[in-house]
Write a structure and sequence with these properties.
heterodimer, A: about 450 residues, 17 helices, about 35% helix, B: about 170 residues, alpha/beta, 5-stranded parallel β-sheet, about 15% strand, binds pyridoxal-5'-phosphate
């Protein structure tokens, strides 16, 4: 466990007396009070009727709890939010339309023009582009650092830095972040550590227990788990003291968006989650559909079962590939020989996830031939589905780059990325064997 | 379970303790109540009124005025009706004299808001038979135990397969 932290207005221990499997089924999912429906109803409505003018005013002033408009809150979406908050051992969560929307909304709450982020260099490619290119147009600047170089993070922090951002288990490189050490660096600088926990899920790793302040997810992946719904979520530990310095005026100073209400003072340990919702989500607009929230929360009820099977299958497949004569290397932290194996044992003791890359002996041609020869694996650009997925980055997602740029991005001509599903592992291995023979 | 005999862990209240207090309380004296709509005390007072509590504001600077339809008193001792709970929106250092007054007027609960804690005052109140809650907000606790706060994506830590959502 990370060192004890006690912010001024911490209201409650997050820790639940219930086990993970109980929480994934029950957290947030009480029977519907209006109808008694045991499964969460899909509140497919844009707006909610006010009780009277006074209640309407209280709702708009954030003085009472209730629903106004689905861009802000929705009872179906709230079940997804409560479930992920409980599973991450957090105070609160705010759901949005995608993983990228979660990043946008979270950073919008922290950043002003001219501000700065220190991020791992090994992030999902789309996140590198979001932070490195699109955020620049908001005058938000990112320094990317080698994830293994903890001192490098500390050295990159400037007085304008508002957060450190890493992935617990990076997509697709198999890099594992030393969350506890990075949390120390962030807290010494008076800024939060934000961890994208998409690839690990709270079943494999709970970053807040190692000192992370904010956790983000692309719920599109393992949380939903069935490859059917886009979604994202911002998870607030409730442990960061937003009033410790003057770096976060949107939280610690009176808000012009709410006639002078101060979020940190009014909402205490849920201030960040509430502000993400009532300022950033309200004003930027990337709300999740209640139907997608329903699909995701239903998927989450089996999260631990699926993750166990994903990890068991991935371990078997990785060991098979590591022994195969046509395979040059396998980058999977579950392998004893892997450079991240020790960190995996610390942060992901239940399994090293199910997304990893390997290198074929051969070039670009072998890569495309391999992918085309698979029958059970689906060739597509996603991860974290019940189905096994494959992609040859050089001929798809990284096609626009030069061979040198591809190599630097870990997407060299011979690199294949797999997302191992929950099928019978023997069938997966047969499929891979056949494709390797053809490659 | 007797709350006055069991030692209360003020870092970690159990839900039944807080639920018990919120269920039996009817009249709350709110010390440090503000007439400004964007102050936390105003939020809490308005919400607690909506949930059926009578909330009587105490604030010497506002004495004689009204907040949310209730007359403001200068001190706890000036309140002409029986008070069940004293809820304090004041700095931790200002709590001891309020505690003495809360004991004097026969309140049954001393509640200190988020960020407010005074262990000596709490011990004194408990010795006089009061129940004490510190560093919590009754609005948030009511919202949590009724699961209403879950609409804001907050982890209520409550798991219940019963239909009703009373606290
Ligand atoms: C680790 C990680 N973070 C964020 C994202 C972005 O999520 P979304 O596609 O839901 O916007 C992805 C998507 O691939 C991802 O793998």
């Amino acid at each position: 466990m990370a060192s004890e932290r006690k912010p001024a207005a911490r209201a409650a221990e997050n820790t639940s007396p219930f086990g993970f499997d109980t929480l994934q089924v029950h957290a947030g999912t009480a029977p519907d009070p209006a109808t008694g429906a045991r499964t969460t109803p899909i509140y497919q409505t844009t707006a909610f009727v006010f009780e009277d003018a006074d209640q309407a005013a209280s709702l708009f002033n954030l003085q009472t709890f209730g629903n106004i408009y689905t861009r802000l809150t929705n009872p179906t979406t709230a079940v997804f939010e409560q479930k992920i908050a409980a599973l991450e051992n957090a105070r609160a969560a705010t759901a949005v339309a995608s993983g990228h929307a979660a990043q946008l909304v979270a950073f919008h709450m922290l950043m002003n023009p001219g501000d700065h982020i220190v991020a791992s260099r090994k992030l999902y490619g789309g996140s590198i582009t979001q932070l490195g290119v699109s955020f620049k147009r908001f005058d938000w600047h990112t320094t990317f650092v080698d994830p293994d170089d903890i001192d490098g993070f500390a050295a990159a922090v400037t007085p304008k830095t508002k957060a450190i951002f890493v992935e617990s288990l990076a997509n697709p490189g198999g890099v594992i972040s030393d969350i506890e050490a990075l949390a120390d660096v962030a807290h010494k600088a008076g800024i939060p550590l934000i961890v994208d926990n998409t690839m690990a899920t709270p079943y494999l790793c709970r970053p807040i227990e190692w000192g992370a302040d904010i956790v983000l997810h692309s719920a599109t992946k393992f949380l939903g788990g069935h490859g059917n719904s886009m979604g994202g979520v911002i998870v607030d530990s409730g442990l960061f003291d937003w009033g410790q310095n003057d770096k976060f005026p949107h939280l610690s100073q009176p808000s012009p968006a709410y006639h002078g209400l101060t979020f940190w003072e009014t909402f205490g340990d849920m201030a960040f989650a509430v502000a993400c919702r009532t300022i950033s989500l309200r004003d930027l607009g990337p709300a999740i559909s209640p139907f997608n929230a329903f699909m995701i929360l239903t998927g989450m009820e089996t999260l631990s079962l699926r993750m166990r099977k994903h990890c068991d299958n991935a371990q078997t497949v990785a060991e098979f590939l590591a022994r195969h004569p046509k395979v040059e290397w396998v980058s999977y932290a579950g392998l004893k020989s892997d450079r991240y194996h020790a960190l995996a044992q610390k942060y992901l003791p239940r399994g090293a996830g199910s997304v990893f890359t390997f290198g074929l002996k051969g070039g670009y041609e072998s890569g495309t031939k391999f992918v085309e020869s698979l029958q059970v694996f689906s060739h597509l650009a996603n991860i974290g589905d019940t189905r096994s997925l494959v992609i040859h980055p050089a001929s798809t997602t990284h096609r626009q780059l030069s061979p040198e740029q591809r190599a630097a991005a870990g997407a060299g001509d011979n690199v294949i990325r797999l997302s191992i599903g929950i099928e019978d592992v023997a069938d997966l291995i047969k499929d891979l064997e056949k494709a390797l023979a053809a490659a | 379970m007797s709350a006055t005999l069991d030692k209360i862990d003020h870092d970690n209240y159990n839900d039944d303790y807080v639920r018990g207090i919120l269920r039996k309380t009817r009249v709350i004296a709110m010390v440090g109540a503000s007439p400004n709509w964007n102050r936390p005390s105003y939020f809490a007072m308005k919400y607690l009124q909506q949930k059926g509590y009578r909330v009587i504001p105490v604030n010497p600077k506002e004495a004689g005025n009204e907040i949310l339809g209730e007359k403001v008193y200068a001190s706890l001792s000036d309140i002409p009706v029986k008070v069940d709970m004293v809820d304090c929106f004041r700095a931790s250092a200002a709590i001891p004299p309020i505690t003495d007054e809360a004991i004097k007027i026969g309140a049954k609960v001393l509640w200190l808001q988020l960020g407010v804690r005074n262990d000596d005052a709490a011990a004194k109140a408990e010795a006089a038979g009061l129940q004490v809650v510190m560093n919590r907000c009754p609005k948030i606790e009511f919202g949590r135990l009724s699961r209403e706060i879950g609409w804001m994506g907050v982890n209520t830590r409550v798991i219940n397969s019963k239909r009703q959502s009373r606290i």
